[in-house]
Write a structure and sequence with these properties.
The protein has 734 residues and is of the alpha/beta class. It is built from 30 helices and 18 strands. The longest helix has 21 residues. The chain binds nicotinamide-adenine-dinucleotide (NAD). It catalyses: a (3S)-3-hydroxyacyl-CoA + NAD(+) = a 3-oxoacyl-CoA + NADH + H(+).
């Protein structure tokens, strides 16, 4: 064997080898070209050396591995385009297919090499790494609380192409296997064992010894599916049992994806076809689908946004380089209401000391009680211990006294959305904190530059905009006011990193980035309602377009009175042309005349009956001046309206300099408001469609529906020049 760089390989006196995966200079093992080369050498050495009985594969790091290096897969796509240009499509396809199935062939070689392999897993073992484990003849997982196995490829628009679909479908009942592949969940060790995906669970420091013992005890080097007369757990596809599974599986696929995710369809096809074939052919079928999916715009867009860009933003891509790392230990949260309580909880969960202030001791305590209820929920789910709760609550100090903020490095205010109340809070906080502390506002609508006028040190004043519920939503918008300095931005970014959320940095604007797009989505739903589109059709069009919920449902979650309040405030400040009067009237009717505020009072566009699913309020039809015949409506146009209106708003934020990096609009739109993830985000939606085609679509909508579909100048120019948002950003950076 030539020198191994990514593995240590040792054989003990009993002839049992241990390959310890430990890539130099990386915190996490990933599957790269070099790793595949070395793994191949290890397999051939084990297979060819009569003195070696078998081999244990384990990791020298805390985690086993996060899976394949997705940038390598992106590289395959680029190589394909290059080869297609020089040698033609067929030659490029042949090469692409061979390259994209390398991992699958390697794992199959391991499985059939004649010597037993055991995976000894601790920590994260996901994607391609778990496919490696599945190809091993035996799997032992450690009971370490951090151990997780799974095949999450679907989350980036891919599916397991290293044999995962075939092995899982031969280890589990078909229905369970499909569900596991569709959901891409990370499984805890005991769950994985109960599902038949690993054979044993053992303490971390015993997994390698147990793996060796399994080999020494004569563990078989033949996978169950290579034993003649093997029967899959659910039997044959063409059987009465199979017919109980496949027709509903198709229906579930449609219901869950609205046919927007080619990778999910490929999973269905790959399992369905593969189960009817012997393993080698089945793997070839899987590889064919994998090569096809890897080249879809959905996979390319999702890998770029949800893996690469998100990773870069999480690692501080937008952090001002000259500011030394901050050492945040103590944060203040002023306003212990709905948002403040959530902010206190996530901060304390990250190990920060929290000073939680409200007008009364009871209000502050109520905010802390929220943290108590959340961590108790975690304990009930087995995700935390009572000692964690005690420690977390001990980190939250409640008070009404601003003097307690003295040693805070960062103070976040989440008091009422009223400029006067906020100005008073700013004054009181600044009187109490040290000269280096940063002040942040969690306002959702008030421009930061205006609020900072109440500050004596506007360079240390920044917006940190959370989404609700704080503990669940992964996005945080950091808003740069006109005077906000680099240190405030860096502090905000360091804080967001500590609480393990994803930050985007945007320039000041009414509604910042996310809420502008969300507002456009909700308004479009209201417009449709007033046009006479059946409410259920509006909601379904939203979901079919790829949004997590329809616009009316989303409005119920946000609260209808909040929308009305914002509309009234906007009209008062910017004049009657700044709002949509039909929408205002609709909200006035719902909120003021009908007392329907949304989910919070169980009455909004939907009714929320106790103990039963929500249902659209029958009274909505009486608010419609006309009612259109659903058969006369074009569902594709409704879907387009709902996405295009948001993408146009995103394009405007770029034109206005609110968004300065397309990665942030894309990541922000998916994490912040669930913009159809298969598109890769609101700007990728335009880029992948092509600016010219998008502009044509928007202009056709403008002709029918008015100026909210008018195309901003930056996008018109892009359509003329054949440019893209990402191309423009690259040019600017160069
Ligand atoms: P809330 O009414 O639930 O909480 C506000 C809290 O601030 C109350 O507990 C109140 O007693 C306290 N408070 C008011 N004046 C105070 C003062 N002078 N000193 C100390 N405490 C004071 O409101 P919320 O929904 O948590 O919103 C708070 C802020 O967060 C607002 O600026 C809002 O725009 C913003 N925000 C809200 C959401 C959301 O979905 N609710 C999302 C993002 C941002």
């Amino acid at each position: 064997m030539t020198d191994l760089k990514n593995f240590r390989f040792e054989t003990d006196a009993d002839g049992i080898a241990v390959a310890t995966w430990d890539m130099p200079g990386r915190s996490m093992n990933v599957i790269t070209e070099a790793v595949m080369d070395e793994l191949s050498q290890i397999i051939e050495t084990v297979a060819g050396d009569a003195g070696i009985k078998g081999c244990v594969i384990t990791s020298g790091k805390d985690n086993f591995s996060g899976g394949a290096d997705l940038t390598m897969l992106q590289g395959l796509g680029r190589a394909y385009e290059a080869l297609k240009a020089t040698e033609g499509e067929e030659a490029a396809m042949v090469r692409f297919f061979e390259e994209s199935r390398r991992l699958s062939l390697l794992f199959r070689r391991l499985e059939t090499c004649g010597k037993p392999f055991v995976a000894a897993i601790s920590g994260i073992c996901l994607g391609g790494a778990f496919e490696l484990a599945l190809a091993c003849h035996h799997r032992i997982a450690s009971d370490d609380p951090k151990t997780r196995v799974g095949l999450p490829e679907i989350k980036v628009g891919l599916f397991p192409g290293g044999g995962g679909t075939q092995r899982v479908a031969r280890l589990m009942q078909t229905g369970d296997a499909l569900q596991m592949l569709f959901k891409g969940e990370q499984l805890r060790p005991l769950m994985a064992r109960n599902m038949g995906l690993v054979h044993a669970v053992a303490p971390k420091d015993e997994i390698v010894a147990q793996a060796k013992a399994w080999i020494a005890g004569g563990g078989s080097a033949v996978a169950p599916w290579d034993v003649p007369k093997f029967k899959a757990p659910s039997g044959k596809v063409y059987s009465p049992a199979g017919m109980m599974i496949w027709p509903p599986a198709n229906a579930i696929y449609r219901r869950e994806t609205h046919d927007n995710y080619p990778a999910a369809k490929a999973i269905l096809a790959s399992v369905y076809e593969g189960l009817q074939l012997p393993m080698d052919l089945a793997l070839k079928v899987e590889s064919r689908y994998f090569a096809k999916i890897l080249r879809t715009s959905e996979a390319q867009a999702m890998i770029r946004t949800l893996f690469i860009s998100m990773g870069e933003l999480n690692k501080g891509a937008r952090r001002p380089k000259d500011v030394p790392p901050t050492d945040l230990k103590r944060v203040g949260v002023v306003g212990a209401g709905f948002m403040g309580a959530g902010v206190a909880y996530v901060s304390a969960s990250a190990g920060l000391e929290v000073v939680l202030i409200d007008q009364t001791a009871e209000a502050a305590e109520k905010g802390k009680a929220y943290a108590h209820s959340l961590i108790t929920g975690q304990i009930n789910k087995g995700r935390a211990k009572t000692a964690d709760r005690d420690a977390l609550l001990a980190r939250i100090q409640t008070t009404t006294d601003y003097a307690a903020l003295k040693d805070c490095d960062l103070v976040i205010e989440a008091v009422f959305e009223d400029p006067r109340v906020k100005a008073e809070v700013i004054r009181q906080v600044e009187a109490a904190i040290g000269p280096d502390a940063v002040f942040a506002s969690n306002t959702s609508t008030l421009p930061i530059t205006g609020l900072a006028k109440a500050s004596a040190r506007p360079d240390q004043f920044v917006g940190i905009h959370f989404f609700s519920p704080v503990e669940k939503m992964m996005l945080v918008e950091i808003i740069k006011g006109e005077a906000t300095g680099d240190r405030a931005i860096a502090t905000a970014l360091d804080y967001v990193r500590l609480i393990k959320k994803t930050p985007i940095v945007v320039n000041d604007s009414r509604g910042f980035f996310a809420n502008r797009c969300v507002t456009a989505y909700i308004l479009e739903g209201h417009k449709m309602l007033l046009e006479g589109v059946p409410p259920a059709m509006i909601e379904n069009a939203g979901k079919m377009a790829g949004m997590p919920v329809g616009p009316l449902s989303l409005n119920d979650e946000v609260a209808l009175d909040l929308g009305l309040k914002i509309a009234k405030a906007t009209e008062a400040q910017l004049g009657p042309d700044a709002i949509d009067h039909g929408q205002k009237q609709l909200l006035v009717e719902l909120v003021e005349n009908q007392g329907r505020l949304g989910r919070k009072n169980r009455k909004g566009f939907y009714d929320y009956p106790e103990g039963a699913p929500k249902r659209l309020w029958p009274g909505l039809k009486d608010l419609q001046p006309t009612r259109l015949d659903p058969d006369s409506l074009d569902i594709e146009e409704l879907k387009h309206r709902l996405l295009v209106v948001q993408a146009l708003e995103a394009a405007r934020t770029v034109g206005e300099g609110v968004i300065t990096d397309p990665r942030e609009a894309d990541v922000g739109s998916i994490l912040g408001f669930g913009f159809a993830p298969f598109t890769g985000g609101a700007l990728s939606y335009i880029d992948f469609m092509g600016a010219a085609a998008f502009v044509e679509l928007a202009q056709a909508l403008e002709a029918h529906h008015g100026p909210r579909f008018s195309v901003p100048e930056n996008l018109l120019a892009m359509a003329r020049d054949g440019g893209t948002f990402y191309g423009a950003a690259r040019q600017q950076a160069a």
